[in-house]
Structures are given as C-alpha cells and as structure tokens.
Amino acid sequence: MKNLIYVPLLMLLFLNCKSDQNTITVEQETTSEAAKNNTSESKKVNEFAIVIHGGAGTILRENMSAEDEAAYNAKLEEAIRVGHEILKNGGTSLYAVEKTINVLENSPLFNAGKGAVFTNAGTNELDASIMDGKTLNAGASAGTKTVKNPINLARAVMENSPHVMLSGEGAELFAKEQELELVEPSYFYTESRFKALERVKAAEANKTARDKTAFYDPTIKDSKFGTVGCVALDKNGNLAAGTSTGGMTNKRWGRIGDAPIIGAGTYANNATCAVSSTGWGEYFIRAMVAHDISALMDYKGLSLQEAAREVIQKKVPDLGGDGGIVAVDKNGNMVMEFNTAGMYRASMDASGKLTVGIYKD
Ligand code: ASP
User: Fold this and answer.
1) pLDDT, tens only, 126-166
2) pLDDT tens sequence across 36-50
3) Pocket test residue of 118, 227, 339 for ligand 1, highest count of atoms within 8 A of CB
4) What are the residues whose beta carbons fall under 8 Å from the beta carbon of 103, sequence distance 6 or more?
5) Which fold has domain 49-359?
6) Of 154, 237, 262, 305, which residue is most buried, by most CB within 10 angstroms?
7) Ligand 1 center from residue 221 Cα (angstroms)
8) Backbone angles phi, psi at 236, to 5 degrees
C-alpha cells in the first residue's frame, strides 16, 4: 500500500526531469543559433523600450546657444516620457509612437508639423508614415498642407483605408472624413523656417537650372534637419516605427522624401527591429535604409548595431548621402546611429534610464 503512494510521486519526478531536459535543450539551441548568427543581442535586454530622433545634420555645438540647447533637450525629454509612460502602463508601441511624435510635431523646434520647412513656392508640404511590426501593416501620407498632425493621418490610412499611402488633396479629403484636426496652411508658418528659405533662395540665385534643385547644394542640404521619428517595443513584444517631416527646405515639384516611404524612412517587423530614418531623403530612398537594416538582421544574422552601422556608416555615405536612424530590436536593444555632426535624439529603457543627446560626443 505504502509503495502505491510512491508510484505517482516517482512519475511526477520523472516528468519534471524530462521537461527540465527539454528546457535545457531549447536553451542550448537558442545559444548555438545566436553564435551561428554572430549576434550577442539574442537575449531580451528590455521588456519595453523607446527611442526618438529630432533630425540629423550639421548640428554643431559652436552654432547652438545654451538656451536653444536646453529647449531641444527639454522637448526631447518631454516627448519620450509620453511614450515611455504609455509603454510602462502596458500600452501598444503604435500608440506610444503616435503620441510621442505628436509632441514633437506640435513644437516649432522640429521640421515636422508646426515647425515644417518651406517649399520653393513658400508652402509647407508634410510627409509621414507609421508601421506595425506585428502585422506588417503600414500607413503613410505625403504632401499635405492642412493636417495638423500627419502621423495621425498615417495611422488612419493604415487602419481605416485599404491603402498604404495617400497624397496631396486626396489625403486631406481622407483626413477630413476621418475627422482629424485640420488647420489653415498659415498654422505652419514660423519665422526661422521662412528665413531659411530666403537664405537658400539667395544662395541658389546664380545657379544653373539643374543645380537649382535642393539636392545638389551642400549648403542647402543642411537646411533640412528636424525631421522627427520614434521607434518602440511594447510589453507584448510588438514593435512599431513612425516618422514625420516637412521634408527639405526649397523642395519643389511635389518632391517627396524618404519619411513617408515604407522601407526607406520607416520600417518595423516583430521578427527583427523597428527603424526611423532622418537625413538626405533621396539617398535614404535609394539605399532603402530602414528595410535594409532589418534585412541584414534577417538574412545575414547581424545584430541591430552591426546592421545599422553597415547601412549608415558605409552604404549611405558611399552613395554620397548623410543622416542617421534610431532603432530598437525585438529584444529591446536600442541604437542611435548617424554619420552627421549631430542628431537630436533620446532613448529610454524599461528601467526608466534616459539618455538625451545632440552632438556626436
Ligand atoms: N529625410 C527628410 C527628407 O528628405 C529630411 C530629414 O530627415 O531631415 O525629406
């Protein structure tokens, strides 16, 4: 009789050992897979994480006043704390990305929303995109003049339309139907951006027709920084990325940059990472920057840091372009990589550790 009691106990013990063995086997597989992939980043380092940028370019300490520097740092911190709070409370990465970008869009400091740069015609034409790493669904809008927060329009395109990208008047019509906040075009006027347009126009006055495009003049290409972007990983392991911009000062002919192009300015995939770009858009489109980083992780087994370095320090400059990215991978590793003198940026991990930066060092 006594022995009979021991039988189920022994069975339980046996089963327990077996499941332990299974666990060990799985762990070993994961470890050896990581070794094969040469990725030291295969372990979850953050349950959730968020990284933002406010544009990359020739941002030099000597050109920045102490007040300006403090204002940028404060706004970056305010924005990232909004997203971090959402993630901490179990909100989705998509919501965190959208709300964080709204703070930056509503500030005149950045080339997005309120602070958008001017086109050659003296208008403001805004681009934005957002991507959901879980479903690979995406939404984008280009060339809008009356939508206060283009990132909200991008999200509405993703969720409430059968399309991925809408542009111009059609996009504005859709925004109206979606009851998004519309503003008069004059809402986007800021004196500093208008003066930048005047400077750029004066600088190109003696140029030939071909060189009058914003894209061939090194003095002009730097009149663009301030694009904003956000990437986030939420507690459910879902990644999201979003980017919003006014594009480049003096752009013309309905020029659209990389920011609203999925794979160039924005990309998110739960299998790899979420990326938001900023920089000289033409090159970021040609290098397919955001997707390329994900693809290097996916197909070549690179870590996020390695993939970002390859694209930003080699591929883009080899083509002649400049700029940077912020990214977070599925394990919560965060990267802020740029090949310019500076990039407005901030990151916050699950423990609440905050970093804010502007210059390279
Ligand atoms: N990438 C943006 C564009 O080319 C500009 C920027 O990031 O500053 O439109």
Assistant:
1) 999 999 999 999 999 999 999 999 999 999 999 999 999 99
2) 444 445 799 999 999
3) 227
4) 75, 78, 79, 82
5) Glutamine Phosphoribosylpyrophosphate, subunit 1, domain 1 (3.60.20)
6) 154
7) 9
8) -90, 5
